[in-house]
Amino acid sequence: MKQLFDDVSFKCSKLVTKSYSTSFSLAVYMLSPSIRDAIYSIYGFVRFADEIVDSFHGFDKEELINDFEKEYYKSFNMGISLNPILNSFQQTVKQYNISDDLIQAFLKSMKLDLVKSDYDSKAEYDEYIYGSADVVGLMCLKVFVAGKDHKYEELKSEAMRLGSAFQKVNFLRDLKDDTLVLNRNYFPGVDLNSFDEKAKTAIVKEIQEDFDVAYQGILKLPIEAKFGVYTAFVYYKKLLNKLENMPCHEIGTARIRVSNYTKAGLLAKSFVSYKLKLV
Question: pTM score, two decimals?
Answer without folding.
Answer: 0.90
